[in-house]
Design brief:
By secondary structure, the protein is of the alpha+beta class. About 50% of the residues lie in helices and about 15% in strands. Helix 2 packs across helix 3 and helix 2 packs across helix 6.
């Protein structure tokens, strides 16, 4: 199991994941697919040899039970592929068979046939559901080690140390010390998202009866705003973000939106010391869950501001997400500068720049800034 001998023996995980996608497309005419059939077809598509499939690592289970032969890397890697396909919504999985989930998610894969990379991952998983599934799997593995749930919340340092233990081993044995870029990204991005939300919740109660903020609390507070108040809020959020990133610049902003205007809701002008000027055009949509932004809405917004990409920038903010056609439009847009901020990015910006939130106590602990929201509600 020497690392040097194994570095080039397995194809990049992005190629393996694409092989899983092509395998599913090849077998999609069946109402159900046995796992044995899936893996036989997968081996053909991926062109894996018996030697490649025999590369082994010592899992936690092997170590605990003193198994010296170890576990083939092939097993956790193909399980990861199935998890990705399930997270994307293109298969319904149970213990014995797989069912192709023919629908809009599956349709998005019809023309896809290339190595999966960090850059094109959004095409097959636009909502980032893979990271949520990975977080759940990681947490389940953590609990299987006999560590109680309350310790997960109270001792995040230990949780981070034990996260993805087996997957990290597989990654090094199969791909060398640096690991595979896509697997590294899965691990790091899942850990980052988990830490962003969970590191803030150690000891829920803080001074003066304040409760540490959660994403649900933030969304509830936003839902209590009117559409016009949400436009004001987004204007303040972008203004604070620009101010923190470039404190030497001068900013001026004004609200331009009206109820049901369908156009630009706010504008911010940023002037730097060298007289360079940037203008930001903001569209804010306070939508209910499941009401995602369409490509038509993006097209209408982009048509409302100049195409000079160096100095004019559109920022589309929503409390939900963007449809796949909208993301495709964004990815192929070359004429205008456009920034998309979905629900998760919105919460991250609020936490990063403390807009609608504030720190209490000596340690970083965020709570809702009720005074801020009371001011917003006066608009």
């Amino acid at each position: 199991m020497g690392e040097t001998a194994n570095i080039t023996k397995l194809p990049p995980f992005g190629d393996l994941l694409n092989s899983g996608i092509q395998t599913l497309k090849n077998l999609s005419g069946r109402s159900s697919i046995s796992q044995n059939l899936f893996f036989r077809e997968f081996d053909k598509v991926a062109q894996l040899s018996d030697d490649q499939k025999s590369i082994s690592y010592l899992s936690q289970f092997d170590i605990q039970n003193e198994y010296e032969e170890g576990t083939p890397c092939y097993e956790p890697l193909t399980n990861l592929i199935l998890m990705c396909l399930s997270a994307m919504g293109v298969i319904k999985e149970n213990c014995f068979s797989l069912q192709p989930n023919i629908g809009k998610e599956f349709a998005s894969l019809i023309t896809f046939d290339e190595k999966v990379t960090i850059k094109n991952l959004v095409r097959i998983d636009p909502l980032g559901k893979i990271f949520f599934w990975l977080a759940n799997e990681n947490f389940s593995q953590y609990l299987m080690k006999g560590i109680p749930n309350n310790d997960y919340i109270a001792n995040l340092k230990r949780f981070d140390e034990k996260s993805f233990q087996d997957l990290k081993k597989v990654n090094q044995v199969a791909y060398g010390k640096r690991g595979d870029p896509l697997i590294n990204y899965f691990i790091n991005e899942t850990t980052r998202r988990t830490s962003l939300f969970m590191n803030n919740y150690q000891d829920a109660m803080v001074s003066d009866g304040n409760v540490k903020v959660t994403p649900d609390m933030i969304l509830t507070q936003l839902d209590n705003l009117t559409p016009l108040q949400f436009e004001w809020f987004c204007l303040k959020l972008v203004e604070r973000s620009l101010e923190n990133e470039s404190p030497e610049s001068n900013l001026s902003s004004h609200h331009t939106g009206k109820a049901n205007d369908g156009g630009i809701d706010g504008m911010i002008t940023q002037i730097f010391s060298n007289e360079e000027r940037h203008t930001y055009y903001i569209q804010a949509k306070l939508y209910s869950q499941g009401n995602n932004i369409s490509n038509r809405e993006l097209r209408n917004f982009v048509g409302g501001y100049p195409p000079q990409k160096e100095s004019h920038h559109g920022i589309f903010i929503t409390t939900t997400s963007f449809t796949k056609p909208a993301l495709d439009y964004f990815e192929n847009l070359e004429s205008h500068s456009l920034i998309l901020i979905d629900q998760m990015a919105l919460i991250e910006l609020m936490m990063e720049h403390e807009v609608g939130l504030k720190q209490v106590d000596s340690k970083p602990k965020l709570v809702l800034d009720n005074d801020f929201f009371e001011k917003i509600k006066r608009y």
